Amino acid sequence: MRMSSRRLRASVLGLGLFVLAGLSGAPSASAQLGKPEGLYYKSWAIVVGVEHYLLAPPIPGAIQDAKTVAQAFRQMGFDEVVEVYDTDASFRRLQQLLSNMLPRKVGRMDRLVLFYVGHAGVTQDVDGKDLGYLVPSDAQVNNVAKSITFDQLKEVTRRLAAKHTLFILDTAVRGWEVTAPQQLSLEGRLSPENDTERRAMQVITAGDKGEASKRVGDASVFVKTLLAGLQGAADLNKDGWLMASELGAYLEKDVSKATSGQQHPISARLDGDGDTVLIEGRKAAFVLGAGPQTPAERQQAARAQYDQAFVLLQEGTRAEEALERLNRSIELNPEFGDAYVLKSYIRLELLPNLDEALAAGRLAATHAATNPDSHYTLGLVYEKRGNFPEAEQAFLQALKVNAAYQDVYFSLGTLYADRLNDQAKSVEAFRRYVELGGTDSRARAAVSQADAQPKP
């Protein structure tokens, strides 16, 4: 299927992002939070803030941001909150903290959250893959030898053997791909103990490689949004439980919106297949799946299910779980067109069932008529079923919505050439595909051959 990841991402962004929750408007932490008895023996928060560097530019407000986050962890009931700022956050001190103190004190039934605000960088590992690193207060930004690499962080957490470890990094960095991410958990399933008991090592960054971590005055946009999330705003399905995967999805949306698309947080799983619990709600709500009541709550919950399904597909994990999320989303909001789009795609390509793909595709075209992927996916379903005239009409409808949709022109070109026996229209479609930057060799060859033929 030639639906690019960019187009799928555009479908997600087309849903409309949740409004950035200000701290004053977020639910009170004390109303929701409690020490997760039985889930963890002890909870640790390591807060590292570097505002003044010896050999790098300062980051005004970094320490105040870090102190605010440290206070939030205390209010959440963390047993130990260790704060390390400026000169104390030297290379030697951080190495001692990570390699000596934490392995001695953090147990197998503990959770560990490490928050970092400061400079970061990206280098290449021995295989040429990105490797991110955090810059101590006495290091240069481009000196990986005196920095803390993601590989080192992962090795430390493996030695700790804590049940759940979460890195929250207020810096724009990438470079954890050296370990393939495992599946995201389905927070709110009927058997939550599976997710809370399995080990997990997760990371959330404030942005992608090359982006700047935006600040308004001396305040970090990422930290402001993080605090709102920890106070309850990130509990998207409103069941009282906040998981690391849920917090990551919330930050990805709201920080991007707050920075007008200039900053794109990333959440990923580095190891394990569990999910860190940040807020424990009522066990009945988690086990029984207490659902939203009002239409607005049902729409919000439907969006949350859709977003989780999309993340599961991005992570390359089991399509069955993504489909389960989408079915839940549609149950909550039967007119949620983009959920039908993604369901149709899954049933077409990942878990083939052409009858379900067609049914979902038709509903997508009805309820998400302004999303070109609705018509494009429906056209691909028609083509695979052998309904070629219907496929042509669906593709043409997709182009009415977005006349610059490159992949649709390629699909039209192959449809005209292979199924409808109209070479003139095939070349016309291929030509438009190439004009829009398409590089497929078949399309380019068809256009070149047509141009080489003598004019009548």
SSE blueprint:
Elements lengths: L4 H9 L15 H4 L10 E7 L12 H14 L4 E6 L5 H15 L5 E7 L2 E5 L5 E5 L13 E2 H11 L3 E9 L20 H5 L2 E8 L7 E2 L2 E2 H13 L8 E2 H15 L7 E7 L4 E3 L3 H6 L6 H20 L4 H14 L4 H14 L3 H14 L4 H14 L2 H14 L4 H13 L4 H13 L5 H12 L4
Helix pairs in contact: 3-7, 4-5, 7-8, 10-11, 11-12, 12-13, 12-14, 13-14, 14-15, 15-16, 16-17, 17-18
Can you characterise this structure?
It is a single chain. By secondary structure, the protein is α/β, with parallel strands linked by helices. The chain has a domain at 20-290: Rossmann fold (3-Layer(aba) Sandwich), CATH 3.40.50. Helices cover 48% and strands 14% of the residues. The protein has 18 helices and 13 strands. The strands form four sheets. Strands 2-1-3-7-8-12 form a six-stranded mixed beta sheet, with helices on one face. Helix 6 links the parallel strand 7 (164-172) and strand 8 (200-207). The two termini are 37 Å apart.
How would you sum up this structure in a few lines?
This protein has 456 residues and is α/β, with parallel strands linked by helices. Helices cover 48% and strands 14% of the residues. The protein has a domain at 20-290: Rossmann fold, CATH 3.40.50.1460.
